[in-house]
Every structure is written in C-alpha cells, then in structure tokens.
Amino acid sequence: MRLVLSRLFAGLALALAAALAHADVEGLNPAQEVRYQALIAELRCLVCQNQTIAESSAPLAVDLRNQVKTQIVAGRSQAEIIDYLTQRYGDFVLYRPPFKASTALLWLGPFLLLLGGLVWALRYVRGTRQPAATTEKPVDPEAVQRLLAETQAALAAQDAPARNPKE
Amino acid sequence: MKYLVPIVVLLGLIALFAVGLTRDPREVPSPLVGKPAPAFALPGLGGTPAQLTPADWRGRTVLVNYFASWCAGCRVEHPLLMQLAREQGVEIVGLAYKDTDADTQAWLDRHGNPYRSVIADTAGSAGLDWGVYGVPETFVVGPDGTILYKQIGPMTPEAWETKIRPLLAGTGKS
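YS: structure for the whole thing
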C-alpha cells in the first residue's frame, strides 16, 4: 500500500514538474529556449541565495524568470539582459561575477593561497635539509659513557627498593 | 622569531573572520545607491490618485518604504514608521508590494497609516526596477531624486539614528 502511494506521489510530482517546466518556456522558440535555460542557470536568486533562478520557486525567482523570458522574446541580447539585472541587483545576481577591483580577491584568492603554500613548502623543505647538517655537533664518546653509567646507576637504585616489599 | 609567519597569518585570518562573519549575507549591497531613483507610474491605493511617479516628491527628502500586508517584518518596523511620521514629520511614501488594495487597506486600517501616499505596486514591477528582493526595504531618496541609502529588512532605531537621520538632516529636513 505504502509503495503504491509513494509511487503515485512520485508520478504526480513528476507530472507537475513537467507541467511547470512546460509552462515556463511557453511562447519561446527552440533557439530562444536554449538561451533562456542557459541564462537562468547563471543567475542567482536573491531570496534563497544558493539557488539559481532556474532552480528556485521563490516568487522573486519567478518574476526574474519572467523578466528574462520577456526580454528574450523582445530580442534583447544576453549582455543586455545581464546588464539589466546587475543594474538593479548588483554583481551578486551573477554566479560568475566579472573581474574587477572589488572582485579581484575573489578571483585571485585561491591562486594567491596556492602560491603562498608553494613558497612556504619550498622554504620548509630547504630549511629542514640544509641547517640540519651544519648544526649537528660531533658526538663526544666520553659524555655518552658518562650518561650511560649514570642511567644504569639510577635504574639500579630504583629497582632495588621497588622489589623488596613484594618479595 | 620562528613563529612570526604563522602568527601573522593567524591574526590576518582572525581579522578577516571578525569582519566577514559579522556581516549579514542576506544584505546584498544595492548598486542603486548614488544613482537616480528608477521611474515608475503607478496608481495610488484604491486607484486614487490615478498615477504617482517619483517626480511627485522631487525637492524633498523622503523615505520610500516597500511593504506588504503579508509581510511579517513590516509589522516589526511599523510602530517605528508611525512614530517617525507622527513625531518627527518624516515623509514616507509606501509602496504596497505584490498585494491587493483591499488587503493593504485593511492592514493600514488595523495598524495605522504612516504614509504620505501609498502606491499600489500590485505586480511588483516598481520593486523589480528598484532591486527589491524582499519586503520590507526602505530607500532614502534625496531632493534631486538620488537614492542615498537602502535599508534592507525592517527599519531599526539604530539604522534610523546612525544611517538615515543624518541623511535627512544633511539635506535640510528634520
């Protein structure tokens, strides 16, 4: 029963989605539809900020889709439509903002981080290889002997009282 | 100073986060600030007056407030707008965004009407031109028709005191 119901709902949802998608491109010829789909997949919905206006069902996204459609039908170019929207909502509506002073860090940031990381890694590798050879002091055999003797003495002294109470 | 570089990087990150994480990502800066207010010609609430345009308040500094009866944030800012209009004589133009005249009128009857004029933006067309993406939004429009400031979300006493009031004072209005 459950399976039947869930299938029924899935079917209904699909039919609804198909109907909506169909209604959305009504009045566009195939070439216009391609441009329309490409454009709305590049534009950000300002209400639900991590969705494109193609994905979002927020009223504002619907308005913006209609606006894009109207302008495509009116024969406006892609650049003109994008201009129209950025004049109102700023570069934020674009999922690929243009490169300019205020977005330089956005575009170049990852490369700067990569460069910084490379510089750091190079310095680190060099720093661990070379100074290690020069700072190493020759081992003094007498000091080793002394240290060994001291350690043995200390261990013996520690062992002796520790064993006594148990035995 | 072995740790100088990591410490500098850490301080840089802390500074970046201190600024970045306190900003509200929902507040998209408007490209219209400093530009002329977009024109529209829309009817007043209930069809009277027949047509209103931004030229109707040329020469004065006004607040242009996009609101709707279905909007919760508008209820929040409404008492403040009432107070500004009544006690400080601020001229507020209301744009009823995507609302029916009947609902807008009922809302104003119930909560009070702080607006000098109410314009019916039933289809949200003016809102689209003004870059409105969620009500309430309030624009400060100068006497020459330039948008001086945009408040996204409900007007707050802080925003009024620190951002908007100085703009009104600077243009010779209370």
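YS: worth flagging: Strands of chain B lie at 62-67, 92-97, 117-121, 137-141, 147-152.
IM: good catch. Also The mean pLDDT of chain B is 90.
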